[in-house]
Specification:
Helix content: 40-55%
Strand content: 25-35%
Shape: rod-shaped
Order of helices and strands: EEEEEEH
Largest sheet: 4 strands, antiparallel
Oligomer: single chain
Number of strands: 6
Length: 105
């Protein structure tokens, strides 16, 4: 049985692809690696606040870009939530101050 040695395009770990197969899983990072015309591709499942999987053939740099974009979206969402909470607290405090002003003056 002939094996084809190659490296995972996602993490660089060595892979062994059995002859006659066109895909395998990386035991280091868990990526599914496909080989087409002698070139290795990795599939990445992207799940950002959704239950939808999107599988693409992408490079390592594109994978890092997708992860960076997901982190940016996460931080924006957290900042929006904090802003909404602070805005709500300010409105409540203003209502209390107006009520106190009306009661005592």
């Amino acid at each position: 049985m002939k094996v084809i040695p190659l490296n995972c395009p996602n993490c660089g770990a060595p892979l062994v692809l059995p002859d006659g197969k066109n895909s395998c899983f990386c035991s280091n990072c868990g990526s599914k690696v496909f080989v087409e015309n002698g070139e290795a591709f990795v599939t990445v499942n992207v799940n950002i606040n959704k239950r939808v999987e999107e599988t693409k053939h992408i490079t390592v740099n594109e994978t890092k870009h997708i992860i960076d974009e997901a982190e940016i979206q996460k931080h924006k969402s957290e900042a929006d939530t904090k802003s909404a909470i602070i805005g709500g607290v300010i409105i409540i405090v203003m209502f209390i101050l107006v009520w106190l002003f009306i009661q005592f003056f």
